[in-house]
Amino acid sequence: MIVARFTCEILGAIPVGELEVRARVARPGRSVELLEAVATAGARDVACARAWRVLRTDSQSVDSRSAGPPALPREVVTEPLGGWVDGYLSAVEWRLVRGGFGIPGPATVWARLRYPLVPDEETGPLERVLAIADSGSGLSGELDFARWQFINPELTVHLHKAAVGEWICLDAVTTISAGGAGLATSVLYDLDGPVGLGAQSLLVTPRRGGPSGPSPAS
User: Fold this and answer.
1) pLDDT by residue (tens digit) across 119-159?
2) Considering the entire predicted model, what is its pTM?
3) Rounded CA separation 195/64 (Å)
């Protein structure tokens, strides 16, 4: 089977420490099935995820009508941009096509994980895509990070194929309307072409302390 849709709901602050994960098949089936997982820190649920898997069949590919992915740049981003707190940023190799962290507006970037998610285990294509897809709102932010924050309580990714290779391209754009809600959407590619779409609902709110407040974190 192949995961066709993945959604993660962030229920609260996730500590750096031990987590317990419970997983189950919520809806078994021969053609489609629904998987569920919950991450718990202590006695508190901090995240839950759902994934629809569909059966691999002998159906043929239909050429995508969207434009292909941009070329992979040679230049590597060597340090965090725009005042972002480091950590995750250094765990990923970034190659910017347009825009970038701390630069308002749409952004396109190629990225690959520098380290495996689990020591001594090869990171699979689904994990490579999801690790990069969550950067859409951070890359394509439309407001000054020193004055505003936009928190995504969820990430939803629709996939139509498994990514090939370690490089994932993220072509992201953010839309913000008056009232505090926003939406970041991303087209996801591997080197062969599009693999799916990502979306993040956003809470848009002024930072406490304004420009002199704490540095923004991804």
Assistant:
1) 899 999 999 999 999 999 999 999 988 889 889 999 999 99
2) 0.88
3) 10
Both tokens of 130, joined, read: 């999801």
Query: Are 188 and 168 spatial neighbours (Cβ–Cβ below 8 Å)?
Result: yes
CA-nearest of 198, 213, 47, 49 to 129 is 198
- pLDDT for 214 equals 38
Nearest 5°: phi and psi at 211? -60, -25
Q: Which residue has the tokens 């809600």?
A: 181
Burial class (CB in 10 A: 0-12, 13-18, 19+), 209: exposed
Domain at 1-56: CATH architecture: Roll (3.10)
Contact between residue 157 and residue 135 where contact means Cβ atoms under 8 Å apart = no
CB burial of residue 5 (10 Å; 0-12, 13-18, 19+): middle
* 72-218 has CATH 2.40.160.210 classification: yes
Q: Which two tokens stand for residue 86?
A: 């480091």
Q: Which residues of 56-83 are buried (b: 16+ CB within 10 A; e: fewer)?
A: eeeeeeeeeeeeebeeeeeeebeebebe
How many Å apart are CA 124 and CA 135, to the nearest integer? 18
| Domain residue ranges in the chain | 1-56, 72-218
